[in-house]
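Example 9 (inverse folding). The structure is encoded as follows.
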């Protein structure tokens, strides 16, 4: 008897996201994409991590909800953190980094829990295709380099 499918694990996703962020080459691309293209880093990492296919309408809903959270919460915290950096208050800056990270973790947890779709044990998706569809505005050579860098983490 094969095991029954399980829902995506928010902790497993968060562990992947942290491991990806800890790689300097990955972090550099993510920061550049965030600044130049308005990419929601958590959503992009989720798209890489999720092991099964979703209908396009589901991806659109997830991206929209993530964008709403990012605009209403995370980017506001990030803006405040950047302002505090300039006033020589390291404790406040450090506290805001923690709040920004917590906001991103809430988004990550919501993405993984909100799916309600069991994991597909058939294997990894074609990340080149998925990222091309979801993030076509990113330079193709950078997407390819990013995928090569995170593939060992998947």
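The amino acid assigned to each position is listed next.
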């Amino acid at each position: 008897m094969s095991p029954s499918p399980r829902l995506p694990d928010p902790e497993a996703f968060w562990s992947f996201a942290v491991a990806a962020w800890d790689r300097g080459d990955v972090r550099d691309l993510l920061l550049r994409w965030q600044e130049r293209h308005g990419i929601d880093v958590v959503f992009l990492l989720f798209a890489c991590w999720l092991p099964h296919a979703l209908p396009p309408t589901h991806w659109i809903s997830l991206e929209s909800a993530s964008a709403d959270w990012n605009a209403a919460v995370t980017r506001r915290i990030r803006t405040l953190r950047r302002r505090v950096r300039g006033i020589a208050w390291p404790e406040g800056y450090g506290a805001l980094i923690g709040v920004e990270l917590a906001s991103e973790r809430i988004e990550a947890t919501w993405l993984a829990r909100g799916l309600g779709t069991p994991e597909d044990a058939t294997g990894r998706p074609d990340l080149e295709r998925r990222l091309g569809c979801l993030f076509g505005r990113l330079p193709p050579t950078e997407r390819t380099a990013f995928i090569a860098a995170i593939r060992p983490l998947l």
